[in-house]
Amino acid sequence: MEAFSSPSKYFGAALALRTTYNIDSAFQSAAIIPSCNHSYQLHTLQQALVPVMGQAQELQCVTDGQGRQVLVQLKVSLFSNFSAGCLEEGTQDFSPYRPCENQSRVFYFPPNQKNPRDPCP
């Protein structure tokens, strides 16, 4: 794929995707802010992303040392023109993360430059 044929093109494409699919802005518009103390219903996070990402998205989580479900990744399928597509069932997934669970609330932690692996001890 031409967009990924060099490091500068790869990172340029990543920045363009970040602008096109502005997740931070979508969350801010829905009054979802990073917090160590406040969690959200999974549906609330998903619905905030629909205007930007459409329905074909999967929020992925980890469980931290305190048993909290923490949002770590957004999985979305893109077509070769970088438009959002549908998530394919049965495709091999190499991600170490799992889909967030509906029955548990989801934490959206703020970034912590000094301790990125444990931003909310």
Automatic annotation (TrEMBL):
<dbReference type="GO" id="GO:0006401">
    <property type="term" value="P:RNA catabolic process"/>
</dbReference>
<comment type="similarity">
    <text>Belongs to the RNase T2 family.</text>
</comment>
<dbReference type="GO" id="GO:0003723">
    <property type="term" value="F:RNA binding"/>
</dbReference>
<dbReference type="GO" id="GO:0005576">
    <property type="term" value="C:extracellular region"/>
</dbReference>
<dbReference type="Pfam" id="PF00445">
    <property type="entry name" value="Ribonuclease_T2"/>
</dbReference>
<protein>
    <submittedName>
        <fullName>Uncharacterized protein</fullName>
    </submittedName>
</protein>
<dbReference type="InterPro" id="IPR036430">
    <property type="entry name" value="RNase_T2-like_sf"/>
</dbReference>
<dbReference type="InterPro" id="IPR001568">
    <property type="entry name" value="RNase_T2-like"/>
</dbReference>
<dbReference type="GO" id="GO:0033897">
    <property type="term" value="F:ribonuclease T2 activity"/>
</dbReference>
